[in-house]
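This entry is listed as follows:

___
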Amino acid sequence: MSLQQHRQSGPVSVVCGILSASDTRTLENDESGRLIRSLLEAAGHEVRFHRVVPDEPVAIQAAVAEAEADPSLRVLVVSGGTGIAPRDGTYEALEELIERPLPGFGELFRMLSYREIGAAAMLSRAVAGVRGSRVLFSLPGSPAAVRLAMEKLILPELGHLVGQLDA
């Protein structure tokens, strides 16, 4: 089966969730979370879960568990906490949960990011992987990084990824 056939065999609409890890943002001022929602919905996907939690591994993992309570939720996009500052704990939280890593996501994100911001792209610990029947994506918290990841990587392959989990 060709790549195009694989893409076409995946679902057109996927139930998604959004989780923002931040010590300063709320649902009202979470620009990156709103951007993720608008891009997902514009592409025909449904958002059924949206939370903002402190950038603490325990809080992040609890929110992932909450999202997983909905068996129809197939994709969770997490923003924030992917840097190397002492409070950036998202990578560690998700690394413990991911069962099958998708290293190409982080590699491609950093390559694309390098084209926009230069060597500072190496500071990002953006990561993705599979947990059960779900795909988890972890993005930096900046709206520019979110837009880059969503438009160039996640949205073009979302249905294909979920379709592969169901194959």
